[in-house]
Amino acid sequence: MLGAFVVVVVLVAVAYSAGKTTAAPAAAGAPAQGGTAGGGMPDLAAMTPREQADRLFNRIMTAHQSGNQGEIDMFKPMALQVYGMLGPLDPDAHYHVGLIQSITGSPDAAAAQADSIEAAVPNHLLAIMLRTSVARLQGNDAAELELERRFLDNFESQMATGRQEYLDHGRAIENHKAQAEADLGVASGG
Fold it and tell me: pTM value?
């Protein structure tokens, strides 16, 4: 039953996306996603529920980058519902849910996702990034700078773990690092 529902939700999302005439740029926070040859419809039956949830996440991030609030509003409930049906989430999925909550103005919900990530992995870079986003949403400059410092303090040791989610979100992590270094007046470490 869950699989059928998820396929229907993703089919709606993909059909809506297929009607667009131009492709939006890849989202900075979104992991790379495989396309289909010739731009055709993906084989939804071959996708796992997690892949379907991540496809919705990618759609929201693309809409966010292009400033398409209508698409964000349409896909947010679908994405949150699909992620909610997956069962226990890994840090990457918590980050996806938290980022969706963050960009849609739900800082408490985003912070709860960061809490879940750090309960499993203290000082996880994606959790710190979510917390920084929350501080920014709340206009808490002091907390934002403190979190950026914490991010930089943990960057090398966390990146050395080789976590898949760090690879998947490498561009967003590097952008966050560059912003933190600029905000704190720190020379780039490479």
Answer: 0.78
